[in-house]
Predict the 3D structure of the following.
Amino acid sequence: MSTTSRLQIPERLLLGPGPSMVHPRVYAALGQPVLGHLDPQFIALMSEIQDGLRYVFQTQNQMTIPVSGTGSAGMECALCNFIEPGDSVIVGVIGYFGTRMVDMAGRYGATVRRLDKPWGDVFTLEEIEAELKKGPAKLVALVHAETSTGALQPLEGMADLVHRYGALLITDCVTSLGGVPVKVDERGIDVAFSGTQKCIGAPPGLAPITVSERAREVLRNRKTPVGSWYLDLTAIEKYWGNARTYHHTAPISMNYGLYEALQLVREEGLEARFARHRRHAEMLWAGLEDMDLALHVPPAHRLPCLTTVRIPEGFSDTEVRGRLLREYNIEISGGFGELAGKIWRIGLMGYSSRQENVELLLSALKTILGR
Amino acid sequence: MSTTSRLQIPERLLLGPGPSMVHPRVYAALGQPVLGHLDPQFIALMSEIQDGLRYVFQTQNQMTIPVSGTGSAGMECALCNFIEPGDSVIVGVIGYFGTRMVDMAGRYGATVRRLDKPWGDVFTLEEIEAELKKGPAKLVALVHAETSTGALQPLEGMADLVHRYGALLITDCVTSLGGVPVKVDERGIDVAFSGTQKCIGAPPGLAPITVSERAREVLRNRKTPVGSWYLDLTAIEKYWGNARTYHHTAPISMNYGLYEALQLVREEGLEARFARHRRHAEMLWAGLEDMDLALHVPPAHRLPCLTTVRIPEGFSDTEVRGRLLREYNIEISGGFGELAGKIWRIGLMGYSSRQENVELLLSALKTILGR
């Protein structure tokens, strides 16, 4: 048998909401020989991955690990560990991923208090406080970067507010981590989760999560077992903590890829990385507006990692995206739910956030839209 | 930046209970460019992966997919989709992985009827029937290949028996799939799950699962939502079925690896693969017995994929394994739970099942044990 894979996938320009493109060094890491999940060399690598995740989450939290699933597993892990049946939970919905948290929290027996705002909007501190005033809540779950709308939820002062009412703050950072500051410690966020396939620049398959001491105390004081065995942090922490006790077989190769992607983040530096994401986003925004296209989210809370632009009248969503894919090998994405057929979603995340990608996409759109 | 990974992992001879070694073609596939999870090319690949899984499970089941987590996620998926709070569930425990199913079933609200036998033993049809006679059960969960003991549970007639009592048969095939016949359709198994990192020969990260029409009917008739969002087959089937509706971002690169590993299985042919696993296992058994070492499981239900051998008196478990790792670069594993310190576990699975590996291990053990 030959050692060449039969699989020959041509490289796409991934400019959708994720997965984003992957650096050649990360691909090379994926192909490193598999080690046992209790091999001393892998154990050492786990500590380095945890350090890298702390760097990008901007935290000193001891419990900072990659959950062995994609971003949605991270979301479920962040919720199920802190919810016991009957708990009152506030979930902010500013897009699709808020509704997903409502769904998950309900499955774990929470009494969900759902706050809705139009898709594309964000919450103010006053709006969250008004709900907190209505009665005690165990936690408040908000989406930091709403991948379905392109809105960036401001978090300044949010954790302090939530803590004053005795609750925990959980944030969905799937599309923000590595692209904009998350600042877990400075902001006092209790639980933040993400995925590897957006601004971190690794393939999908792992879900970084970080948990504050305050949240760990809540975890320790649970009266019932965590609803999910696979996502039970009380057991997972024994593998990723000092004991290194077997829980499940970690996805070894995916962890190699994450290690390498985190090394690339370190080499670039977080501040430079944030500036790069912003610079290319602004270039894209200016180019789209030059074509008289309307951006869906106002500048004040517009997410640099993922831009949403309204589909101009007279053009078909799928036809334009089909031409981009066929003629330019570029993937962008359409809208979800109430924004389906109304917007395109353009991601400039991680290794995809490059000037040449912005220029090519703008040029392609100009041609296809005739502007 | 260079395109060479900083990560330089030396290859180990992985002869433990998994992960097992990975063929160079599978490594090459892992490094193929990431596609979007809704890209037409990836969608086409999904169908090929499903066909490959049907081949190795020996089934025509439409619902045959890789769950986006490691083997334990497959186990949880197999249980949580078919358990509703209050359901009566029979779980056979012949080793550690049976106890894990007891734990999981309890978390999803089942009334668990636990059957225990000594670790290394297997159940007879009569023993299962005696429990079924005591009262109705929704399902019977058995471990086909008990990774903690090296026992292979016979399944002939088991599904017919379980069906006569109106229950479903769920089997843990993590360490059997691809190494010994699983024969899902011929045996009438309702739900079988596995991992990619054992006899399939891909890295850990995905959990193949197959679900019979009978089990799908039970799924359709649920009165409550599935306890886990991430593992909810009613939603996952819309992504892997004809609709291709987004549920979560699939681990793209891991699926490339699984595709290639399944291609290798096809090229070798299932029967030849089973024969290879048996041939090398018998070579190992004979060599161990030549050294006057005692095998833990009697030949009648000894698993070819994973051999358990009793640690001879006067030798330290960890010292011998440490020398194998340091001096020969070979990983084998110790025992679990009540077998800790009493046995070694030697895996000859997938790409690890090679004659030269058996010979080197036997030679190394001879030297270290002075036999």
The domain at 24-266 of chain B is CATH 3.40.640.10 (Aspartate Aminotransferase; domain 2). The first strand of chain B starts at residue 13 and ends at 14.
